[in-house]
Design brief:
Blueprint lengths: L3 E7 L5 H19 L15 E7 L2 E15 L2 E13 L8 H14 L6 E4 L6 H6 L3 E3 L3 E4 L5 E4 L5 E5 L12 E6 L2
Parallel strand pairs: 4-5, 7-10
Antiparallel strand pairs: 1-2, 2-3, 3-4, 3-10, 5-9, 6-9, 7-8
Length: about 180
């Protein structure tokens, strides 16, 4: 069986074949609940500027997307890499493809210069996966724009995670998080 290769592709450089492979991956997971995947507004969330893609034999078997954004935390502004679209095909589950993708995401953020932290959106049931990849859970109120375009405020307690890219965990400010847009 061929090796799983990891590559980083800018959103605007995705080929039609890449888009079709990503559509298959996303639709296999979300089609019944959310309809077809739209690469420019995935299920109403923020799009990705970079796609970290896992391929086996040319087929896309995993993906993590991220985009740079300046957000507000307490009274501070922080440059983050907002992470979303973390998907692994059933064909490669158990092969540590997810952790390899998350390592590549962190490395790509380090190479982007100026990204202080990674910041994913996730469900409670996958927090342990992020923790196993070095991400730290924080507790804060979070403000964003929801998938229908309306302001949203979530109280502390929902899964929020950060990954220091340039700096340390202690550098994360105290206070409410304002994503200044849609989550990823």
């Amino acid at each position: 069986m061929p090796e799983v290769a990891i590559e980083i592709v800018a959103h605007e450089e995705l080929t039609s074949s890449d888009l079709e492979g990503l559509r298959r991956l996303f639709d296999a997971e979300y089609l019944d609940d959310f309809g077809e995947w739209d690469p420019d507004k995935p299920y109403g969330y923020a799009p990705h500027a970079l796609h970290v893609i896992a391929r086996r034999g040319g087929e896309i078997v995993g993906q993590v997307g991220w985009a740079r954004r300046t957000i507000a935390v307490g009274g501070a502004e922080i440059e983050i890499g907002g992470v979303g679209g973390v998907l692994i095909s059933d064909a490669v589950r158990g092969e540590r493809v997810g952790s390899r993708l998350m390592s590549a995401v962190a490395e790509s953020m380090r190479g982007a210069n100026g990204v202080a932290f990674g910041y994913p959106g996730c469900r409670e049931e996958v927090v342990s996966f992020y923790a196993s990849c070095g991400w730290t859970r924080i507790s804060a109120e979070e403000r964003s724009i929801d998938t229908s375009g309306r302001p949203r405020e979530d109280p502390p307690g929902q899964p929020l995670l950060i990954l220091p890219v340039e700096g340390e965990i202690a550098d994360w400010p105290v206070g409410a998080v304002d994503l200044r847009g849609r989550a990823w």
